[in-house]
Amino acid sequence: MTMSWQSKLAYGWGSLGNNILYGFVATYLALFYTDVLGIAAASASLLFLVVRVVDALFDPVMGMLVDRTSSRWGRFRPYLLFAPPVLALLTVVAFSVPRLDPSTTLALAYVTYLLWGIAFSAMDVPYWSMSAALTLDARERTSLVMVPRTLASVGFIGVNIVTLPLVAVQGWRDVAILYALIAVALTWITFARVRERADHVPSPRYQVGEMLRLFVRNRPLQLLLAAMLMTEIAFTVRSIIPAYYLRYNFDAEALVPLFVGVFAVTTITGSLLSPLAARLRGKRGAALAGLAVTTVTSVGSWLTGYQSLAPILGWIAVTGIGYGVTNITLLSMLADTVEYGHWRTGRRTEGLVFSSNIFKTKVASALGASLGLALLAAFGYVAGARQSSAALDGLHATMTIVPGVIGALAAVPLIWYRLDERRHAELVRELDVRSAGA
User: Fold this and answer.
1) Quick check: 225 and 39 in contact, CB under 8 A?
2) Which of 107, 209, 211, 215 lies 20 to 30 Å from 248, alpha-carbon distance?
3) Which of 335, 300, 295 is nearest to 315 (CA)?
């Protein structure tokens, strides 16, 4: 049965709320640590790497819990009711860490960030797992995923635009409280108004060993996760650098909202174009085209230099279109691997697929944030000081060519990806035949 646009929009509100908090933490927690709490860039780099990798180990456990859940609200919705307030509270706590002696401050940052990551998994894994239980049509999934991912871009990049002006007036903790309240309200809309399909096939329970076996047998999932890992590392690097880049390379910190806003509008434009791109070129072709755009524009912006901000804004605008197309199509392809796994193993495991995705996202966030901060340290960045020419050149490279090269690597796994729309439709028909004969 075709989903109505009202249902797709109701599903998307949860992603908006989720990404208001994720965008706030992913973009500004590093700045809060280095420039407010006084944590050295190298120490912050190690913190992001360690915490995100440790936290990511919880995601497969969360996927197992989701696949085992059975309640009067279904398999996914209970988490959308109970997890958001916890995540909201921990967001406020993370931005309330006091500046004490360096060791104590660093320890508090480790603990609060780790707890935040675990709470994020408890909401994000079931939220995205639910998408595979809303429709089986591969093409409709592109339009379904487009809605929450577009709203995710609105939340993530919108937070980038308004946060620094709000912080200047209210301070970090009060801004965190504001975002937390909005996020909880939006996610509860999804809980109240979205239901999984009545004919949805539940997943039999499985243990850790079998979970690994199921993952190994799902090659399309492995290839997609590898491609998405590269794109998200590139995106994370590009997300945490603008506040530094505009402050020091252009002496234009006040233009961070404009810079991020341009990227926001074009990313959303690319997201909206993704269903059309997928129809014209297929999902895989659309993703590869988007990656080509992000790579070419990254090289172009690097060669342009940082003498003027206007051409950099032009390059980042086109980059956003490519990223929007790539992001939506890859995520839509991820939902298709649920049916592939069901066809190959006889088990339908949305929790496994989407917890693997969140695990990948956290690893990408860890590697991207750690890489970005490590490059700052390597180029000689000193918080609050006048930067050397080497540091300025390093900031420019980190903002442009570095994410471009990383993003280009995402195309490599897609060369071997063969689960196109035609093959997916065949698998769904075979599964229907098996179900009718059972």
Assistant:
1) no
2) 107
3) 300
